Amino acid sequence: MALALRDNAYHTYADYLAWPEDVRYELIDGMAYLMAPAPALEHQDIAGEIYFQLRRFLEGSSCRAFIAPVDVRLPKGEELDEQVDTVVQPDVLVVCDAGKLDRRGVRGAPDFVVEVLSPASASHDYLFKRHAYERAGVREYWLVHPADRMLTSYRLVDGRYGEPVMQELAGTSPVSVLPGVVTAWDDLVSRLPKPDL
User: What's the CATH number for 39-191?
Assistant: First the structure.
């Protein structure tokens, strides 16, 4: 299922800032996608636990972890903020360059992004956002599948995402672009509701 479009007009960050705050959108190549309603509790538990683990690992380093909602502007060049046509809100992200942070959020590619999939957003995260993250230079991109208890990860190689690596949410998963940082799954998965059969 794809997320609904706001309309068929081309939009920029200037338009985005003028919209009411009670409805959330993401912009990808100027198209405004209505964000899914509040995610399920397991989605929040997964995102929160990943953020918590990252934050602990990164304490004292130059890298900072964030959890949604944080606006990430992904310019295609040197355009002014108001002209940027791709603005996303990853579930969890890490930025190691403090120069990319400002009061509005992040301008430029985070080093690491995690999206926790839901039925309403899975195709959006797999297709549109993956392409936007690859183009912007996000070095590592994870998609966590709560229902299937799987992780799909992409790593940037020579400006392109290589073949995805898939693994079960078990044991630990290293974040390859953040040396020494891992995500531990077992305790988290044990407290998630049993998947529907």
Answer: 3.90.1570.10
